[in-house]
TrEMBL record:
The keyword DNA-binding does not apply. The keyword Transmembrane does not apply. Keywords: Methyltransferase, Transferase. Pfam families: Methyltransf_25 (PF13649). It comes from the Bacteria. It comes from Echinicola jeungdonensis. Residues 43-140 form the Methyltransferase domain. This is Class I SAM-dependent methyltransferase. GO terms for molecular function: methyltransferase activity. The lineage of its organism: Bacteria, Pseudomonadati, Bacteroidota, Cytophagia, Cytophagales.
Amino acid sequence: MNKGSLIKELFSNIKTTGAVTFSSKSLVNKMLSFANFKGAKTIIELGGGDGSITRGIIERMEDDAQLLVFEISKAFCDNLRKEFKHKNIQIICDSAENMDRYLNGKSADLIFSSLPFSLIPKESRIEIYKKSRTHLDSQGYFIQICYSYLLKFQFANYFKSIKTAFTLKNFPPAFIMICN
């Protein structure tokens, strides 16, 4: 899938992508800088999109780590499967609400998310929060890109510690919530 097709998919599904453009390299680098990949064996990405965050995770993760990428857009999933053919990367065309079905009893060391929680129906959003908390290792981190600081208050119902960062080097500028 070429860049034009990816952009068309982004705009034609704005309610599920929640973005007007893909994450900038600066935003991805800043987001991933809050994670310790050393020893992280199970990593989850919620909202694979065009693969910009996926690429950054792959560059940093250890060779024996497993990455599960959840994406609900079939077009994005097909593109991600073409680009990332690694045996330790699983592209899952399913809602993050179902992450427990794919973990085989494991907990995640890191969860990265660019899901548009403001646009996700409340019941689904709550289920994703609960499962993220339940299936995150006690020493693990849930790291979220978002465009509204107010989401911090939703995360506070599920995570005991939340730090925030901000970057102007993205359009639009973005917050990063680092939760554990």
